[in-house]
Amino acid sequence: MVRVRLFPILVTIFLIVPIIEIYLLIQVGGLIGILPTMGLVVLTAVVGVALLRAQGMQTYLRFNQAMGEGRLPATEILEGLALLVGGALLLTPGFFTDFIGFICLIPFSRKALIGLISARYNPISNLNMHNVGSKPQGGNVYDGKVIHRYEDD
Description:
Number of helices: 5
Largest sheet: none
Shape: elongated
Number of strands: 0
Helix content: 55-70%
Order of helices and strands: HHHHH
């Protein structure tokens, strides 16, 4: 099992990302001006929300289809999580977070990102629900009764 130290990662993100955002906003503002820069930031948020809505609906429909077929919708759940993160990043003003947000929202890059994460952390994505509730193949099946015993201490 891979152990991830979350606190140092979060501290790094919360220190470095704002610095990158400020740098990029200053650079782009210097090239095209402040009003076009602000317009571009707003435009990316609007386009991101529209893309999030469309991709979210498609993922929701695939989720329902997988459930209807009795499959575990692991990929759809991961895609939904990526869409959630991407949408939040696109609503955050700045070009760096917009770039990462669009990676999470565009289907081919989202699938590649999920593939990388899946390969690294090996989630349970290849299970299906076809065998849930069915008897095991071969071997003995025993009926039993579970009795809970509560002792007073």
